[in-house]
Amino acid sequence: MLSFWAYCARSWDRFLQQSVGRYAAVTQVRYAKAKAFPGMPEKPKRPPSSWVLFLTERRNELKRQPEYEDLSLMEMSKRISEEWRGFDELEKLPYKDKYEESLGDYKRRIKEYQVNLSPEDKRALRRIKSDMRAYEKEHPKPKYPGNGYISFVKSCFRENPRSKDEDMKDFIRDCAQRWQNLDEETKLRLNEQASPLMRKYREELREWKDKYEAWRSDASSN
Fold first, then answer.
1. Where is the HMG box domain (predicted)?
2. Would 38 be classed as within a structural domain?
3. Burial of 221: CB neighbours in 10 Å, binned 0-12, 13-18, 19+
């Protein structure tokens, strides 16, 4: 069962449909894990979702417009997310079609990858995964501190503690609705308060990734 704060974090991910900054940081670590060790076949990467395709396209478009130059990454993500939620199925269809096409190609390539793995490759991958779990247990990744929304949910919980018998989904849904109804100034203030922790988290995650890459390189040579 998910802990309360883990549930909050997952709820926020769904609510904002992935914050770009966090998505980029986590994707870097996942990509580091997916990359092949020297001498090993490279595992195909799963394609980005239709939402991420749209997000990347719109973000690049907005960056070229002078009126959006000073917009923070979070605010830009929020605006793009609101635009996506306002789309009907017909407007989302080109991105969904592109994703489905990429997904079909990915499934074909991942099947070929698995078929072409030699017994030695499979044994090496099992050893790598085992070593990786041991490494991450000994060197845990930095914990995601939460953004303005998570801080808001924590304050809601302090104001109205929930008993074990109460429905957590209803509570989170109520918090999300209250967050949506907040004025932009309050949201901005909460996000700014969380910014130093997020910067520290990204720096620590980058350091962890560098150390992980160094370990991965050493492990591949043994």
1. 44-114, 142-209
2. no
3. exposed
Tell me the two tokens of residue 195.
Answer: 């910014």
Q: Where are the alpha helices (DSSP H) in the chain?
A: 4-16, 20-34, 50-63, 73-85, 89-116, 119-138, 148-159, 168-181, 184-221
| Residue 134 maps to a domain | yes
| C-alpha atoms less than 13 angstroms from C-alpha of 116 in its C-beta half-sphere | 11
Domain boundary among 81, 116, 151: 116
Per-residue model confidence as pLDDT tens digits over 109-143 = 999 988 888 888 888 888 877 877 888 888 888 88
- Cα(81)–Cα(86) distance, integer angstroms: 9
Residue type, 173: R
Residues sharing a CB contact under 8 Å with residue 32, sequence separation 6 or more, in sequence order: 209, 212, 213, 216
State how far the Cα of 60 lies from the Cα of 62, in Å rounded to an integer: 6
143-152: per-residue pLDDT in tens?
Answer: 888 778 888 8
